[in-house]
Each structure stands twice: as C-alpha cells, then as structure tokens.
Write a structure and sequence with these properties.
This protein is mainly β. 5% of the residues lie in helices and 51% in strands. The protein contains two helices and 22 strands. It has a 15-stranded antiparallel β-sheet that branches. Strand 17 (239-243) and strand 18 form a beta hairpin. The longest helix is centred in the first third of the chain and has 9 residues, at 17-25. It is elongated and about 70 Å long. It starts with a strand and ends with a strand.
Length: 280
C-alpha cells in the first residue's frame, strides 16, 4: 500500500529524523580527501577542512519536493521533483531520493548536489549509502572546493567509514589560465587515489602532472600526508609559477623532518621550456 502527498515543504514521509541527520553529515568525512589532492595554489587560498561534528540535538530537517510517497509494505520513502533537504548549514539537492526505512539504505539520483558549511560543494550523478552510512558509492563526482580547487572522479567508494577511494581522478586550481579549448593549463591525474582518514595518508596510483596537455612528471605510485598533517616527512602541496624564460612550471616541494627541531625542504620546479630546475 502506497501513500502519496504532494508537498512544497514539510518533513520526510516516514518521519525519521535520525536518517536525515546521518545522511547529510556522513558525507562530510568522505570527501575531504579531494582537498588533499595536489595543488591549492594559484591564488594560494587555504583549504578549509570539512565540518564533521554533529549539529545540536533537535536540529530540524526541512524537505521540499514536488511529491513525497511512502510504501508501507516495502518501507521505502520516495521524494521526487527537485528534492531539497536542508539540515542546519548542510543542503542536499537531487531529482530523486529514496530511503529504505527497514535497511537504512539511501539512494540519491539526478544531479545530486551537496553544499557543506565550509563552502565546499560536491556534485554527483548518483550516490548510494549503505551499512548505516559507513559505506558509500558515487558516480561521476565533481568537487568544487572552497579554495577554488576542482576535483573530478569517475567513481568514489567509501569502505569501513575511514577509507575513501577515487577512481580516474583529476585535480586543478587553474581557473584563469585556460587554453583555447577552455582546458586548464595544468592538471594532476591519477588512476586511483585512496584517502585513509584514520592514518591521515593519501596514496596515488600512477599520478601524472600535465602542463598544456603534456605529461611532464609521472610516477607509478606516491604517498603523502593529507592536509590535516602539520609536520611529517613527505611531499607538500605543489605551487604554480610562470616566467618568460622557463614558461609555466609547477613546484613540487618535499619536506624532510631531520629531527624534531630541524628540517629541510627541497623545491624542484617542473617547467614547460627548461624541464626540471631548482626553485629560487
């Protein structure tokens, strides 16, 4: 038996505040990994980490949809017609949202958009939440970060609540340096990026740095700390440089913690005209 109500504003058809709260907040820890993908840098705007803390108890969820239905036999609630869910500072927009009250599974489809309180916006073709929202699978992800960085991935998958895997991922912060085709002057690509949130590590499979469409640096594998680590030996966030002599270049600094009180930072620059040089 299915009940249906046409609504422009109201609560979810099956009335489950716990579901709504977990659905939105659970996305926050899954996507910071993208912020750690290389290169903040043309405007040097600092990354604002996602807010993962729960909002105050009793925070209301507002749902706006053309149609909200609930099937009592299957326990599935469905909202369609540009669904807008607002939970405190979080905002979710999708064409369709399905919630299985019996299993806790949530599916959102049709140009899914999630805006976080730190200003990051995540767009996806679809998102599936499983196992009490510890696991997630999304298709065709685009992350618009607060530092103007942009990350894309064919697929994103979160397992065990702490490990997020991006497949066929790209990153760039090159908004004002586009070529004639409208493509960014530089971009970082990787076959796979894995973010281990518990260890604050990022692991890249086949990372490649491209400038003007040409691969100028590539590695079979690379590991680096995520943006929340303040001091650890490893690669730092790259920076962008440009000069008439060496052309466009990307600085790939490497931080070496020699002792608890001393360190050394190497700053090679990969350029389009002169190849690798030392940063001045």
């Amino acid at each position: 038996m299915t009940s249906q109500a046409k609504s422009r504003s109201g609560s979810w058809g099956c009335g489950n505040i716990r579901f709504r709260k977990r659905f939105v907040v659970a996305l926050a820890p899954s996507l910071p990994l993208v912020a750690a993908a290389p290169v903040f840098a043309i405007e040097n705007i600092p990354f604002v980490p996602p807010v993962s803390a729960n909002l105050p108890k009793g925070t209301q969820v507002n749902v706006d949809a053309a149609i909200i239905t609930f099937d009592k036999q299957t326990g599935v609630a469905t909202a369609t017609g540009k669904v807008v869910m607002v939970y405190g500072p979080y905002r979710l927009v999708a064409s369709r949202v399905f919630y299985n009250k019996k299993t806790g599974e949530v599916d959102a489809a049709g140009r899914v958009e999630i805006t976080e309180p730190n200003g990051n916006k995540f767009e996806a073709q679809s998102l599936k939440m499983r196992d009490k929202f510890r696991n997630m699978f999304g298709q065709h992800i685009t992350a618009l970060l607060s530092n103007r960085g942009v990350i894309t991935a064919d697929y994103v998958k979160r397992v065990d609540g702490n490990i997020t895997i991006f497949t066929k991922a790209t990153y760039t912060a090159c908004h004002d340096c586009l070529n004639a085709k409208g493509e960014p002057l530089w971009v970082v690509e990787a076959d796979q990026v894995t973010h281990d949130l518990s260890k604050h590590n990022l692991y890249y499979v086949n990372p490649r740095l491209k400038i003007a469409g040409t691969t100028i640096a590539a590695l079979p594998y690379m590991a680096m700390p995520d943006p929340f680590v303040t001091r650890r030996t490893g690669w730092l966030t790259p920076d962008f440089k440009f000069g008439s002599v060496y052309g466009a270049g990307v600085v790939t600094p490497y931080f070496w913690a020699l002792t608890p009180s001393t360190d050394l930072t190497l700053r090679p620059v990969w350029t389009t005209k002169q190849g690798p040089i030392a940063d001045a």
